[in-house]
Design a protein that fits this description.
Layout lengths: L1 H38 L5 E15 L2 E15 L7 H4 L13 H29 L1 E4 L6 E4 L4 H5 L6 E5 L2 E2 L10 H6 L6 E6 L7 E5 L19 E3 L5 E4 L4 H4 L7 E5 L2 E2 L3 H8 L5 E7 L2 E7 L20 E3 L6 E4 L3 H20 L13 H13 L3 H21 L6 H14 L6 H30 L5 H4 L11
Antiparallel strand pairs: 1-2, 3-16, 4-9, 5-6, 5-7, 7-8, 10-15, 11-12, 11-13, 13-14
Helix pairs in contact: 1-3, 1-9, 3-8, 3-10, 3-11, 8-10, 9-10, 9-12
Length: 477
C-alpha cells in the first residue's frame, strides 16, 4: 500500500510540473494568438512543443496541435516573419492585406506581455496566500571545517560576518545577498570577510582563499566554497531507538551546549566530534538546567564500514532551524523586482571575467523541473511553487523580449526597422541568420540539458541510496 501511494504521489507531482510548464507556454503563445486575431493577421497553427505534431485538430481555420519535441511552443504567423525553418511551411490564403509594422510589433510583444501578466497573477496569489520562508537570519559562524580555506585564513566559530567583499550582509542565505551567495558569486582573487569577533573591539578584515570542489566532466562546475557553516542551536528533534543517544538518556528538546568542554554552535561540530567513535562528554541544556552526559558514537548496524559517508554517530535527529518557517506576504511588485534583480545579477556574474559563474550554471527544462519536483515534495511546497512561478514567468518574458533573432524581441526589432526604412526586412540573409540562431539555441538547450542530467544522475551513488536510515541494535554499544 505504501509503495502504491508513493508511486501515485510521484506521478501526481510529475504531472503537476508538466502542467505548470505547459500553462506558461500556453499563456505566452495565447498572447500572440489573441493579438494576431485582434490586428487581423493570418494564424496558421497554434502548437505546444516543437516538431511534427502527434495530435492536431483544426478549429476555425487554425490547426491546434502538440509536437513530439517537449520544449517550447509557437503560433505560426507567416505574415510576421518567415519562420519556415522552425515551424514548417505555411500557406497564406489569397487576398490577405499587407500587415502594418505596428501590427507586427504588437503581436510580437504580446507573448512577453502575457508572460509578465501571468507572473503578476502568480505574484498576487503569493501576496494573498503567503510564501514560506525558512529562518536564515544571523551571520555568525558556527563551524569552520578543518583544513578549509576559512580555517587557514583565521576565521573562527563565533565570528559574526558584517561584510563580504565590501558588501554588507545580514542573512546567511537569501535573495542573492546572503553569505552563501556572496561567497559563491565572488569575483576577487580572495574572499574578504569583515567580521566582529567576541572580545575584540574593532571589526577584523580577514582575507580568505576559496576552493572549487571537484566535479565530473558531465556535471556543472562547482561554485566557490570557503568551509564555514552558520551558527545554529543544536536542538535534538528525536532520538533513535537503541542508539548511543538513547542509552545516554538524551531526549527531544535537549540542547547541546558543549562537547568535551568545547562550546558547540553548529550540528556540524557535533558530527565532526562524533567521527572518532570515542566517548564524548556532552553538556546539554534541559528545562533551563545544564547537565553532562557521556555519549559514545558508534557505526549503525546497517551501515557498512568504509561506505561513503559512513561514520560513527550518536543517533540523534536534529531540529533544524530550516524546519522553523514563517509566512511572508511580499507585494506583487516586490516579487517582480526581486526576480528582475536576480536575473540581472546572474547575467552580470556570467559576463564578469573573474567570476566562476558561467552559462553552465543556467538550467533547462530538466533542471527546472527537478527543482519544481523537490518543491512540490516538501511540506507547503505548492506555496513555494507559486513563488517560483513568478520568477519563471518574469524570466520567460525578459528572455523573449531580448533583441535576438527568432525570439519575440527579434520580431520587435524587425518591425521597428520596417517602420524606419518603410519596407520589410527579409530575404535570404534573414533566413540564414534565423536558421543559424536556431542551431545556436538548440546547442545551448542540449548543453544545459546535458548538465541537468549530469547533476541529476551523476556523481556516483547518492548518499541516500548508499546509506539507509540508521538502525541500532541493543548490543551495538
Amino acid at each position: 500500500m505504501d509503495t502504491l501511494l508513493s508511486i501515485l504521489t510521484t506521478t501526481g507531482i510529475i504531472i503537476g510540473v508538466i502542467l505548470l510548464f505547459n500553462l506558461m507556454i500556453f499563456i505566452h503563445e495565447l498572447g500572440h494568438f489573441w493579438a494576431a486575431r485582434w490586428r487581423g493577421l493570418h494564424v496558421d497553427r497554434f502548437q505546444i512543443w516543437f516538431g511534427k505534431p502527434w495530435w492536431k485538430k483544426e478549429v476555425n481555420g487554425v490547426q491546434w496541435g502538440i509536437g513530439w519535441i517537449p520544449a517550447g511552443g509557437f503560433v505560426s504567423l507567416p505574415q510576421l516573419a518567415s519562420m519556415e525553418s522552425i515551424e514548417g511551411k505555411a500557406d497564406l490564403p489569397e487576398g490577405l492585406k499587407p500587415v502594418k509594422p505596428l501590427d507586427k510589433l504588437i503581436v510580437a510583444a504580446a507573448g512577453p506581455v502575457f508572460s509578465f501578466l501571468l507572473a503578476v497573477v502568480f505574484a498576487v496569489a503569493v501576496w494573498l496566500i503567503g510564501k514560506p520562508v525558512a529562518e536564515s537570519v544571523g551571520t555568525t559562524i558556527g563551524y569552520v571545517q578543518a583544513g578549509s580555506p576559512a580555517e587557514k585564513a583565521g576565521l573562527k566559530p563565533g565570528d559574526t560576518i558584517l561584510e563580504i567583499d565590501g558588501a554588507p550582509v545580514t542573512k546567511w542565505v537569501g535573495n542573492m545577498e546572503g553569505v552563501t551567495e556572496l561567497v559563491m558569486m565572488g569575483e576577487r582573487d580572495t574572499v574578504d570577510f569583515l567580521v566582529q569577533r567576541p572580545g575584540v573591539e574593532k571589526p577584523l578584515l580577514i582575507k580568505s582563499g576559496y576552493e572549487l570542489p571537484d566535479k565530473k566532466w558531465y556535471e556543472r562546475k562547482a561554485m566557490r566554497m570557503v568551509g564555514i557553516v552558520k551558527a545554529d542551536p543544536c536542538v535534538i528533534g528525536s532520538v533513535l531507538p537503541d542508539s548511543p543517544a538513547a542509552k545516554a538518556g538524551l531526549k527531544p528538546g535537549d540542547k547541546v551546549k558543549a562537547v568535551n568542554g568545547a562550546p558547540i554552535m553548529s550540528v556540524a561540530a557535533v558530527r565532526e566530534a562524533s567521527k572518532s567513535g570515542v566517548p564524548l562528554e556532552w553538556t546539554i541544556e534541559r528545562d533551563g538546567k545544564e547537565m553532562s552526559v557521556q555519549v559514545t558514537p558508534v557505526l549503525p548496524s546497517n551501515w557498512k564500514k568504509g561506505a561513503r559517508d559512513a561514520q560513527p554517530i550518536a543517533g540523534t535527529l536534529w531540529a533544524s532551524s530550516f524546519d522553523r518557517t514563517q509566512l511572508e506576504h511580499p507585494t506583487p511588485w516586490q516579487q517582480v523586482g526581486v526576480s528582475l534583480k536576480w536575473m540581472g545579477d546572474t547575467f552580470q556574474k556570467i559576463a564578469a571575467p573573474k567570476s566562476d559563474v558561467g552559462v553552465e550554471q543556467l538550467s533547462g527544462p530538466v533542471g527546472i523541473g527537478s527543482h519544481l519536483y523537490r518543491m512540490f515534495s516538501s511540506p507547503d511546497g505548492w506555496m513555494m511553487v507559486l513563488w517560483f512561478a513568478v520568477i519563471l514567468n518574469v524570466n520567460l518574458a525578459v528572455l523573449n523580449i531580448l533583441p535576438l533573432p527568432v525570439v519575440d524581441g527579434g520580431h520587435v526589432v524587425l518591425s521597428l526597422l520596417e517602420m524606419i526604412f518603410k519596407r520589410p526586412v527579409g530575404g535570404v540573409v534573414l533566413e540564414y541568420v534565423q536558421t543559424g540562431f536556431v542551431f545556436v539555441l538548440m546547442a545551448f538547450f542540449l548543453f544545459v540539458t546535458f548538465k541537468d542530467f549530469g547533476d541529476l544522475f551523476g556523481g556516483g551513488s547518492k548518499p541516500s541510496e548508499e546509506l539507509p536510515p540508521p538502525v541500532f541494535r541493543s548490543a551495538d554499544a
